[in-house]
């Protein structure tokens, strides 16, 4: 399916890859931002030591609250930010070795980004065709004029905008939010990507429209054989589309694993908190006092120790001195990992229903929940 | 639960936006009652008129929007005919408004304490001491350490700013608090704890809440009743739990089927095809018919009316034959 004339250093084949081979991998990826005045030495730790792997044809969801560093991570992967430390490898090659403009352009075509706000990510003075044709011209110099037009129509059809010829001539203001976001995906598809970085692509859309976009993401994976990194704060929508889930808190990945496994047996207390806080009309009525432990993460000069310990009902002495590392919590299979000193010691915890009521446990919090 | 006598009655309210072409009807014959101490949520997508409705009730509309018909009675008084001076007596003391974005609603160059004081002295004559005491009291009520009276908005987290806004709305212990998506700018965890707190305060202090949101699931455990709006009209009203258990209007059903859940089997969802109509050019007949999976011939031409269906009010031709011709 992917038969593009890639590239500087392609791996031997371009067909569907074996499930073990990482398409994109980060090793100790770290981004610090200096904050404060000129003489300040304070550092905001937006992402710290992130190791992640995205394989071919995989939808990975990165879930976390705002300020957790998930958008920073996406921008690092999109080469918008330069890492403070650590490495990003795309098909085995470190991005630090991409020197020429052509190599960088090639990478950006292979790993494009779709942004959150479809109202500000499209230029209002240009027709829809502008952005798409531009991506095609830039990334597909092999195509003739007619080929470009055909390709533009193909990507519009792929994102469900038909008849494509009508949409090419429209201005963004003539489109609904959902249609605009589809244009965002069409632009990304125009460069024949292998991985689309989608940063909260549905959070600005109306609820009746969101599911359509999530379905589109799943279809694109099937039809175009590509991978997606779906960044969201909505754990239910992550469950809907993703094969694997990464949970991020204060710059760290605190839990990862197969979507269902993480949701059924969340091991990190933060994941449990996120699940308890997710609005769920189908749940029994009952309000847990977990949610009262609302203290935003401390990411400026955080120092050692678990960054969730201030909110954590299970924190122990060790949590304030030693950074917990991601460790296998599935009996050594190494697919479900959590960065928690306490979880690492314990056998797999209770499934979801108990995890939700576990919220009554913490001894802190003044206003206790009503049963 | 027997509803208390309404403190707010909205009757056939119509709001239009004047435009270069014909006026756009953003709120079309909306009637609602809100009992004392009741929590009513108004749910709908962007552009359905829900915020315009709130603004009209609170007398906060500004041109080009204006009320063209209908009545709003608050505690027996005619809100729409009230002079600005009378309005100042009622506003904040008897009803208050919490806006969507605390970052924009709070003054960035004034401390929280100064803003609370400002709101109080604008609506009552109070000694500096009384202002100080009451400010501390409301902050404690909402779970903010009064030490933050000296903090500027940017020094607080999003959740705390939104709490400070709610504290401000409770300064005079009003009978009605109107909230326009007060939790949309904060995270899931903060959102949840804010909802719990609003509910607890409401039960403790006994004020009624009119709560606008686009997210039905958010209010599913908190509101007593739910009104679903589509294209300027109320399409379904009923008790929240009943409505979730048995939604009647195809739009309500579609909305509910649009949420993936974190529990149960993973199932494929469809959402609602199409997009909400442009209110300047609303479809004839039922405004939802172009997107409706149960559309019938008459839906294209006859506008349905809001009529009782089991325990709810529903605006849909599907139930035309079910309506018993009683009273």
List its salient traits.
heterodimer, A: 371 residues, alpha/beta, Rossmann fold, 3 domains, eight-stranded mixed sheet, four-stranded antiparallel sheet, 12 helices, 19% strand, globular, disordered N terminus, disordered C terminus, B: 327 residues
Largest interface (CB within 8 Å) is between: A-B, 45 and 45 residues
Reading off the top of the CATH hierarchy, the class of the largest domain in chain A is best stated as Alpha Beta
The main sheet of chain A orders its strands as 6-7-8-3-9-10-12-11
Distance between the termini of chain A: 55 Å
Quickly give the CATH architecture of the domain at 6-94 and 177-183 and 214-258 and 270-322 in chain B. Answer: 3-Layer(aba) Sandwich
Strand-pairing-aware structural class of chain A: alpha/beta
Q: How many strands appear in the DSSP assignment of chain A?
A: 12
**Rg of chain B (CA only):** 21 Å
**Form type of chain B:** globular
N-to-C SSE series of chain A? EEEHEEHEHHHHEHEHEEHHEEHH
Low-confidence runs of at least 5 consecutive residues of chain B: none
Question: Per CATH, which architecture of the largest domain in chain A?
Answer: 3-Layer(aba) Sandwich
* Percent of residues in beta strands of chain A: 15-25%
Ranges of chain A with pLDDT <50 over ≥5 residues? 1-18, 287-291, 350-371
The name of the CATH superfamily of the largest domain in chain A reads P-loop containing nucleotide triphosphate hydrolases
CATH topology call of the domain at 6-94 and 177-183 and 214-258 and 270-322 in chain B: Rossmann fold
Quote the distance from N terminus to C terminus of chain B.
23 Å
Short recap of the structure:
Chain A is α/β, with parallel strands linked by helices and 371 residues long. Chain A has helices at residues 70-77, 101-110, 128-139, 145-158, 164-168, 177-189, 207-224, 235-241, 259-264, 269-277, 341-345, 352-357, and strands spanning 22-34, 43-55, 59-63, 85-90, 93-94, 113-114, 195-199, 227-232, 244-249, 252-258, 327-328, 337-338. In chain B, strand 9 and strand 10 form a beta hairpin.
